[in-house]
Amino acid sequence: MRCPFCGHAESQVKDSRPSEDGAAIRRRRLCPECGGRFTTFERVQLRELTIIKRSGRRTPFEREKLARSISVAIRKRPIDPERVERMISSIVRQLESLGETELPSSAVGELVMKQLKALDDVAYVRYASVYRDFKETQDFAKFLGDEGLAEAAVED
After folding, report:
1. Which of 11, 34, 104, 123 could form a disulfide with 6 if both were Cys (CB 3.0 to 4.6 A apart)?
2. Distance of CA 151 to the CA centre of its chain
3. Shortest CA distance to 15 belongs to which of 25, 7, 23?
4. pLDDT digit string (tens) for 67-87?
5. Nearest to 83 by CA among 30, 28, 21, 127
6. pTM for the predicted model, two decimal places
7. Cα(88)–Cα(95) distance, integer angstroms
8. 49: nearest Cα among 1, 5, 111, 6
9. Is the CB of residue 26 less than 8 Å from the CB of residue 92?
10. Sign of the CA dihedral 4, 5, 7, 12?
């Protein structure tokens, strides 16, 4: 593994342990060249996935990009980070098990929305506002009405 600090081609594994309920291995590494320490994660990848954007452009699937988009939706919400990591792993497994190597971005978005709805209503609406490209407050009201969340929001 290349050192992220000095670029040296090799590093030494100092510690390995299971992470994320056994879905990954966390490795602490040391660069023999500069002495830098860093962490890597090793996960099973069933197949290479390509995401087809709305514009038709194709990009490789990136777990980190998925995690970033979810973290924006859940920012400042009382959600356990371990639960979020399990949700992300679940979404990735579902995408890989679809049997396709090329997936529309809408498939990813719908899976994320389904998982977020079960996790937290506020995060769900935040994500939906970006995913569905809300332009006006009426878009929020219509979405909340369609989802049956408006009554829940008023009761809180």
Report:
1. 34
2. 29
3. 25
4. 999 999 999 999 999 899 899
5. 21
6. 0.66
7. 11
8. 111
9. no
10. negative
Helix axes 121-131, 105-119, angle to 10 degrees: 160
Neighbours of 82 (CB within 10 A): 11
* Euclidean distance between CA atoms 84 and 5, whole angstroms: 29
Least confidently predicted of 20-24, 33-37, 74-78 = 20-24
Per-domain residue ranges of the chain: 1-44, 45-155
Rg, Å, the chain Cα set? 19
pLDDT band at 134 (very low <50, low <70, confident <90, very high): confident
Q: Write the DSSP symbol of residue 22.
A: G
In the chain, the amino acid numbered 145 is G
Dist. CA 47–CA 50, nearest whole Å: 10
